[in-house]
Amino acid sequence: MFASLKRFLPRAHKQQTEQVHDLLELTSDGIVVFDKRGIVVRVNARAERMLDRRRQDLIGQAFSTLIADEVERTRFTQHMPVFRATGKHPLVGQSREMSVSENLIVDVAFAQYSDKGKPLVAMFHRDVTDRRHTADRLHQREQQLELLLSSTAEGIYGIDMQGNCTFANRACARLLGYDNESELLGLNMHDCCHYSQEDLVPTPKEDCAIYQAFREGVRVHRDVEVFWRKSRTCFPVEYWSYPVHAQSAVIGAVVTFLDISDRRTAEHALTRYHAELERRVEERTVELLAAKEAAEAANLAKSQFLANMSHEIRTPMNGVMGMIDLAMESTDRSERQEFLTMARASAESLLSTINEILDFSKIEADKLELEFIDFDLRDSLEETIRTFALQAGENGIELISDISPDIPALVHGDPGRLRQVITNLLGNALKFTEHGEIALCADCNWEGDRVHLHFTVRDTGIGIPEEKRDLIFKPFSQADSSTTRKYGGTGLGLTISTRLVHLMGGRMWVESEVGKGSAFHFTADLGRSHSVVVSRGTADSSLIGVTALIVDQHEVNRRMLTETLRRWGMMASAASNGLEALALLRAAASAGVPFRLLITDSGMAGMDGFALAGEAVAETALAPLGVVILTSGGRRGDAARCREAGVTAYLTKPLRSSDLKAMLLNVLSSRTQEGGAEPSPLLTRYSLATETGPRNLRILLAEDNAINQKIARSVLEKRGYSVTLAMNGRQALEQWEQHSFDVILMDVQMPEMDGFEATGLIRQRERISGQHIPIIALTAHALKGDEERCLSAGMDSYVTKPIQPQQLFQAIESVLAKRGKRRPDVRLEQRFLKEEQDAPFTQ
Hints:
disordered N terminus; 26 helices; alpha/beta; 43% helix
């Protein structure tokens, strides 16, 4: 239209100007004419309506004011100089869309003509606002659809009736292993990605479910098939195929699909989990049945335990009460002594049972804790095994102490609990061993400031069946827990010991063979003591170079004694029997270096120690300077045999290294000073203990209970101590102010003024005088924290009731030693009977 109009205007310019103007008024396009100045000179009626302005308002206005688009307005302004200079406008012959106003978009075209010789430019504009808005909306929808197809995780593709791809989204290309969608266009999708099953069995097109959509015009869904990638690897898919219709005819199909690999993995995992769950349910059912049986067994064990406890408590209680009744009725002194000794043994058995029950209750309440102090480990082990020497000797059992020389003297830990574990194991060993030997072995290794200890208690007893080895460590359980069992006990000892060992950073286990014996092992982790201690291995000048022959049929005893003597600088040799010892004695005498000391066990097979001593002493050339007999237990007649054989000293095993060294020094000293005088008396552990002589300590006893007063006073006075009584803390304070004492034994619970208050007042007044009297607490409280409370109150030591004499004497000795006083005598409570009565030696 615009081109034909452009050709028409020049021809009609001269002859039909008015007709052209009339024609311009009638056209459906808006027309605005401007001259070389850019001023509007003519506007038709359609332009008035489109621009919504009157003609008289438009004529005379700058044409640029009619252009709303800033870019178009700038371009028009830039072309006007060219139009004025050349008479030809650059926009003539061009057409474009232009925004005339916010609500009007027009399609414009420019044509130039002359009117009376003046060049004019006519802008023809047609309203295309609706068309532009429609096109914009269509483009926006196309963009949204493209964004939707590109953003979805589902693969989507379309196929025609031959199965060739007509479109595909980005997810489809990605899932099938292609770089972009265009690679799929035109490909036969069945041949591309759906040609076979996972097991490589081909899928014919006629059987393809996707084709079914456009063959039958129905929706198809599958979730058990696979698609193949470009790389010829497959993956499980779930897909839907929908027929596509055009004018009621099917022209193809649209396929959407998902990669369900994760779902399949989850399904397989769920299947496995279901199977595992069923298996666990079955196992749990078995466990619950086992737990039910275990609970029933535990109830039975507890019932048996209660029955045994009733026996273990009532039996010694009956012994205490019965023997006391008999003692009260008896008029014979020796008979009363026998009855009271049996009553005391029963009371000690009852106390042991009560202590085990209390310890177990602490375990159950998780209140069992350790204390950490510096203590002499070697001394503690030697003292512990010594307490079993008499019982072992009476039963004819060899008690062996095999403590490694690497064991340190001082360590940091809980000596009481360590001793409790070893005591329990040694006690069990003695209980279940009728003949043979029992050995306590100890070894260690260091790791920084920690010493890792390994203890073994080995016996030749009855042994433990394999099926019972785990049971014995459980509470309320014994290898034989029936009421007809041969061996008594609570069945709590090993349970308590195991927990104590665990608290000490170790573990406990057992090795055993029925009929041959058992070996109980446990480990403990203790700290290094930073206290200064003189090594017990330090050689004494009197022992250095002294030759000694050790005779013992037990290899462990020989090795232990040999190593000990050599650490002291002695020249030690060993023999396993009497004949071998005599041969060594004769060979040494012939070489001019006779043995100065003969240390022999008394109970050897064949030639025993007494016979060997007699032979050695009888041969003048062989006669050593001193003969020391070692025995596992004193027997009636030993004193006479020692005298007949010319024995110098007599010691019971197990030996404390300090006792042995003191004994050897005394033997050498007595023989050196003897000369031609009468032979010196037989040396024993008691003669060593009495060298320092008794010390008459002055003790203030603060105790309100009359029976406890009687017991404590009698024990202390038999020791040779002077005792003053106070009925309560107030009297104790008055006695302390009026008299001089070496030690105060202070009960903590008393009327009027208790032991804590009395101790506090004493300590308060001592701050003025600068003095300090040792105070030992006497209390029935034995819970964790009671000892700390006593020490924090100003007391120096702590002894629990019922009071054991040896424990009390050790506490007194300890506080006096700390105070710098001479140690009191260490005589044991057993009396050494006169040799004339042929009584056994006991320690």
